[in-house]
Amino acid sequence: MHASRASSIVPAVIWQPPLRQWIKCIINGVSKGNPGYTTCGGMFLDSYGSFLCCFAFPLGVQTSDVESLTFLHQIIFQE
């Protein structure tokens, strides 16, 4: 069976730096199963695209939707 033409097209993803004197935080999370063991991580880049620092931490067993909300809650309320 041949792959369809549409599935072989990969869209371009272009990273844009933040405004001058701003910092960009790129975050992502992963869940092994749904629900499953979840982890979040991210990195901070300056307006030149230079690496500043990174982080990663476990969030326990939960669904992928709750994982994203848990991460945001922890960052906002620093819990």
Model description:
The protein is built from one helix and three strands. With 79 residues, it is an alpha+beta fold. It has a three-stranded antiparallel sheet. Strand 1 and strand 2 form a beta hairpin. The longest helix is centred in the last third of the chain and has 14 residues. It is flat, with a radius of gyration of 17 Å. The termini are far apart. The model has no long low-confidence stretch (mean pLDDT 81).
Topology:
Layout (H helix, E strand, L loop, with lengths): L23 E10 L2 E10 L5 E12 L1 H14 L2
Antiparallel strand pairs: 1-2, 2-3
Count of alpha/pi helices: 1
pLDDT below 50 for ≥5 consecutive residues: which ranges? none
Number of strands: 3
Q: Provide the gyration radius in Å.
A: 17 Å
Strand arrangement, major sheet: 1-2-3
Counting helices, strands and paired strands, the structural category is alpha+beta
Largest sheet: 3 strands, antiparallel
| Helical coverage, percent range | 10-25%
Q: What is the percentage of strand-forming residues? A: 35-45%
Shape: flat
Report the span from N to C terminus. 51 Å
- Element order, helices and strands? EEEH
Average of per-residue pLDDT values? 81
